[in-house]
Specification:
By secondary structure, this protein is an all-alpha fold. 74% of the residues lie in helices and 0% in strands. It has 10 helices and no strands. The radius of gyration is 18 Å and the shape is globular. The N terminus is likely disordered.
Length: 261
């Protein structure tokens, strides 16, 4: 996720064109899969999450054999969730992670990092207002990314955690929170979700913070691994993990809230 990029009014937007083009294509793909739903949505999530896990494996230099076994676990978890057995999918992911801890502890954490949000999104799509819930969730992440990007580059200012991610500023975080809150409230009204607009705005703002935490966590992983991007699949964005770092915690939190309520 772009997050709260550092700069000031003279910030360069040289990377904006590829970011916009790739971003629009990814958003269109996500909305189309969400609209169709069912197995199309589940398979789409499975493919994306397998790519993410492969980037995690490569970043942490996990063997291909362990990575392949992890992919089978993730594919099985997505299948079980779509088949209506989300608890079994969670159990499979947890057991797979525990087993993966033996040859490579980091592989086990990678299974949880990839598997839990995948299960959350597929499960959310199966709810009565599944299309709207998934789109609401993803729109919050997109709004956080977009508003933080422009606010951080246009305003600049103090950095949040320069040792972890030197490009993130408080101005960017504030812009992301405002944008996410506004989008969350507007879509809650438009979709007729069971949220008061004020509550939806508040939730959107706090989920923007969660998205930023996900961004920082991925930046921390890349710094430890000594890489700039998680991959090179997406021009202007890096890898799949770079694109989904904010969506990982947000998807889990929204699914947890829906399940509890």
């Amino acid at each position: 996720m772009a997050g709260s990029e550092l700069s000031g009014p003279r910030a360069s937007f040289g990377d904006l064109a590829p970011r916009v083009l790739v971003g629009m294509a990814l958003i269109a793909l996500a909305i189309a899969a969400d609209w169709v739903g069912g197995w199309v949505f589940a398979v789409t999530i499975a493919i994306v999450i397998l790519l993410l896990f492969d980037e995690w494996r490569a970043m942490h230099r996990v063997s291909h054999a362990v990575g392949l076994a992890g992919m089978f676990v993730l594919a099985g978890a997505c299948w079980l969730t779509q088949a209506g057995s989300a608890p079994y999918a969670m159990a499979l992911t947890a057991v797979g992670a525990l087993i993966a801890f033996i040859p490579a502890r980091v592989a086990g954490w990678g299974l949880l990092y990839a598997g839990v949000p995948a299960i959350a999104l597929i499960w959310l799509r199966q709810q009565d207002t599944g299309f709207e819930l998934v789109l609401w969730t993803l729109a919050i992440v997109w709004a956080t990314d977009i508003f933080a990007y422009f606010a951080g580059r246009l305003i600049g200012g103090p950095k949040i955690a320069p040792r972890i991610s030197p490009s993130k500023t408080w101005a960017g975080l504030g812009g992301g929170m405002l944008g996410a809150g506004a989008i969350a409230a507007l879509l809650a009204v438009q979709f007729g979700l069971d949220f008061d607009p004020a509550l939806a705005a508040l939730l959107g703002a706090w989920l923007a913070v969660a998205a930023q935490v996900g961004d920082f966590f991925e930046s921390h992983l890349k710094r430890r691994a000594g890489v700039k991007d998680s991959g090179r699949l997406l021009p202007g964005h890096g890898g799949v993990m770079d694109r989904l770092d904010g969506a990982v915690p947000v998807a889990v939190l929204v699914a947890l809230a829906v399940w509890l309520l």
